Amino acid sequence: MKTENMIGEEELVFGGKYKGLDLNVRYNLKNATERDSAGVLCEIVKKIEPFAYEFSGIDCKKIDDIASKAGNSLSSIAKYIRENPIRRELEDTLDNELLISAAESYFFNRVFANAGIPILPEVSSNLKPENEIIENQIIFIGRYREWVVIKKLTLEDVKDWEVSAILSGIVETAVRKAFYFCGEREEIGIGEGRKTFKNAADLLDKLAAKMGDDKTKNAYLIVKSFEALDYPPHANVKMLTLAHPELKVKKPRGRIPKG
């Protein structure tokens, strides 16, 4: 597959085969609506995000066990966090304590999933993928209207955490654009204060009061609120940067901070 030949086409492409990950798809977006595109992005996230966490170096099975006890509502999750030393329990699952942010992200990802609380847009697509032949690399290409993104990683002599990083970057982009294509574009969120599990429990109670019993509403509000508290519930590159500081994005010279 030649990337340069595909840049002019409206499409979404993901290709990659690495250990248990094996996905090679291309979606033609020429006549797609924004919701079609969002649906395809969500499908890709659901298939690759588990591997972003698995290859990060955390013990997903042990964290699954911790998350499985949190109940099936925002309020029960808040109660579970208050009554248990979650930070210490997550640290005990790690061989590398510098991956604590990845463990925290995966924990919240799983407690929401277990409770049936969506953290992706509730959208689907009838677009059918074509098969792509992509060898020895992971690649993500998105072009739709004014949006263009290309991410790729050659798999020769690659380490698991490097694969996690490329997948996490794709998940971040895909989640953000899926919400955008669904009309969720404002900077909202009620997360505030220092990053602590106590504040996370308080946030969950605030969200429960705001949302009521409808679990299907406000996925965007949940995600943006937890991002604001620095507990993003989706795989993200930042969760790896403490253990792998070379992943940090360098700011361009001469950048003037906004006052």
Please describe what this structure looks like.
The chain has 259 residues and is α+β, with helices and mostly antiparallel strands. The protein has one domain (7-242). Helix content is 43%, strand content 13%. The chain has a 5-stranded antiparallel beta sheet, covered by helices on one side. Helix 2 crosses helix 5 (100-114) and helix 3 packs antiparallel against helix 7.
Provide the helix percentage: 40-55%
Number of domains: 1
- Unreliable stretches covering 5 or more consecutive residues: 1-6, 251-259
Strand order of the largest sheet: 3-2-1-4-5
What's the order of the H and E elements? EEHHHHHEEEHHHH
Overall pLDDT level: 91
Q: Tell me the Rg in angstroms.
A: 19 Å
Number of strands: 5
Shape: globular
Largest sheet: 5 strands, antiparallel
What is the terminal-to-terminal distance?
46 Å
Strand percentage lies at 5-15%
Find the structural class using helix and strand composition: alpha+beta
Number of DSSP helical runs: 9
Helices and strands in order:
Layout: E1 11-18, E2 21-28, H1 34-54, H2 60-67, H3 74-83, H4 86-91, H5 100-114, E3 130-131, E4 137-144, E5 147-154, H6 160-181, H7 197-211, H8 219-228, H9 238-241
Antiparallel strand pairs: 1-2, 1-4, 2-3, 4-5
Helix pairs in contact: 1-6, 2-5, 3-7
